[in-house]
Amino acid sequence: MADLTLNTLYRFYEQLWRIRLLEGHVQRLAAAGEVPGFPHLSTGQEAVAVGGCANLSSGDYLFSGHRAHGHVIAKGSDPYAVFAEIIGREQGLCRGRGGSMHLVDASNGVMGATGVVAGNLSLAAGAAWAAQVRGDGRIAVVFFGDGATGAGVFHETLNMASLWNLPLLFVCENNGYAEFTSREEHSKVGKVSAFAAPYGISALTVDGNDVLTVHDAAHKAIGHIREQGGPWLLECMTFRMAGHYVGDAQRYRSKEELAAMKEKDPIARLHRHLVAKGAAESELDGIAARVKEEMTAVVDRARQSARPDPATVMDYVYSATLPGPEQA
Amino acid sequence: MESTFIDIVRRALDEEMARDSSVYLLGEDVAAGGAFGVTKGLVEKHGAARVRNTPISEAAITGVATGAAICGLRPVLEIMFIDFATLAMDCLVNQSAKYRYMSGGQLSVPMVVRTQAGAAGGAAAQHSQSLESWFIHVPGLVVVAPSTPVEAYGLLKSAIRLGDPVLFVEHKRLYAMKEALPESAGPLPIGRARVARSGTDVTLIAYSAMVRTALEAAENLAATGISAEVIDLRTLVPLDMATLVQSVSKTRRAVIAHEAVEVGGVGAEVAARLGNMAFYELDAPIMRVGCPFAPIPFAPELESVLLPGSRQIEVAVRALVR
Q1: In which domain, by residue range, is A148 found?
Q2: Is there a contact between A160 and B54 if contact means CB atoms under 8 Å apart?
Q3: Residue A6 confidence class, pLDDT cut points 50, 70, 90
């Protein structure tokens, strides 16, 4: 296991809370009707985002799917701009044009989340190709769920990434569910990492609820990618403590299953680990309290921020060099 | 010296690659020249890194091109037949077309998807279609359909330099067409139609290979005393309505012709807009000429009876001009 300083672990703890609490506000405000559409929460899966992104620089390319809030925060994007986008405001990352499922923060390497399951994989391969031909040392990382393995483009992209030796890390968050259907019901292939070997891609399956394990696995994979090129696949076994979307009653899951999940909560696990390493409870409580205050302030500020001007609805459809949309 | 459509398109690609080091070609067999030889010789000149063969994975290669485009490359992707663009639809419709918009202007997709379409004798129902109207329905995509080699040269250059995703539809029946490329040839504006022949009695609106057919029809009509103006749309998105309205205001009659199925085709859109913008300039209903509502058949006798030709255009015109 990589030798991480206590300060780094504190930062992980802080980031886990940041995602958990920001998404808590999303859930609360969605229930109150303040969040347009149907946001998808990553509650319970935060360790994959934090452990994975800890190995990236802002220049590296990140792609995600419909459950992207955690990845974008973990990559270092401003929680205020993220939240403002989730509630559709002008100050949001995408000026309210994208929303929860389409977060982009290009200056921070967040090249796009997509609402189409598996739709991001090939784009990440394209970003990795751009990095490869430029030789600029960047890599691309794409987060996706186990449900994406049912799409043909998943297999097409594995093949191309291997064939072109692309600097690309596939991170599968295997939470055991494709939307409302359990993994057993949608695939006979037990481990997602098993798909990698036929394409000649190195893969690991790890406990995705332990941020340190995820960090170490991503560190190893990314180290290989940066040094030798070529793709890796990291399968992180995790649990979706929330439903598929906010408002999902989760009738397809048992109470026992949901209770067992709480035991494996990534925040509680890092907390136990830190205490065992000698961290003071008060220190940890202080971090959580500070992040809570910070997120409350972010959310309040975002809720006060301006809504997009309806007169700008046709902006950004085409480049300025084309005849206007009334001509299109 | 005259060159074929294929040679002239290759020349445009070659020149744009020499001009801009961020232009990359990818697609099935492109390093070997592609199914029609358009990219022949480019790998020798520009290197294997910039002219890349891909697996037969339309969904993934369209995503790879799109992902590379948002990260600063200018990919030119070849989809061998427009019929196979069906496999690339998710990416084109959900990702490529919407990236600029969904990101609030942070990212753009300067990508050209070159493909070829249309019937050319015996390619049958899955290699002969004209599916361009599907793409004009998607905000964010530019759709270009050149009618001659020289037009293709100028329009392709502009498409490659544009900051938007472009579907560039070449008609396989034009591939052998020869023209001399003028010294002065350069990029042509995207979104500007061209008056291919001036006339006063009726406006024939066409694009791609159908422009040549419309010019034949105009020639035949001239012999019977009807003066037809032929407009080459060049780009289907953006659609140059100003040029169309101007022409129709003069001729007071319009026939729109395309090889694609008439139902739900580009002609329907053009007719609706002309009806809105030039209703009081018209002396007669707007007519459409397109394929009947059937797949493209294999047997030559069936294919030729289905495809619209100059005769169908002339019949439509004679119904308007009495």
Answers
A1: 6-303
A2: yes
A3: very high
